[in-house]
């Protein structure tokens, strides 16, 4: 439902306010500078949280595939952090290329997870016999890797196209392509 709302909402906003800058530009024009400040602060915190969870998830996948020792986790986090920081230093164009590649990779991983789950689908096992009462955060925590790839696959191109020169043209195109 959230991608559908974003697909309807963001092109309208980008055509209304033809300036790059993301949610803080929308907040600045709609509410004022204080709202833009808090929106920008929230976007910055989101970027930090997404980066940290991305690094940890990449490390978790590598650890599961190659049985890497836990003591090397900080090395992987610093390495991936340095890689993304260097992309920012070398320019936005390189960052957007990397974002487009990661978006494509995320969509491919989602398709692989989807098709590999098809043989294990059972309506009786996963719907009828389930106790749907919320008892712990365990299932939520187990769903985070899938949710992360889904979020990156859906939001990657619109977020990149939002920072372009012509957002009124490129944001709807990015949403359509994603």
TrEMBL record:
InterPro entries: AA/rel_permease1, APC_superfamily. One of its GO terms (cellular component) is plasma membrane. Coiled coil: none annotated. Its main location: membrane. It is found in: Cell membrane. It is a multi-pass membrane protein. Keywords: Cell membrane, Membrane, Transmembrane, Transmembrane helix. The chain crosses the membrane at residues 70-90, 96-118. Pfam families: AA_permease_2. GO terms for molecular function: transmembrane transporter activity. This is Amino Acid-Polyamine-Organocation (APC) Family. It comes from Phytophthora infestans (strain T30-4). The lineage of its organism: Eukaryota, Sar, Stramenopiles, Oomycota, Peronosporomycetes.
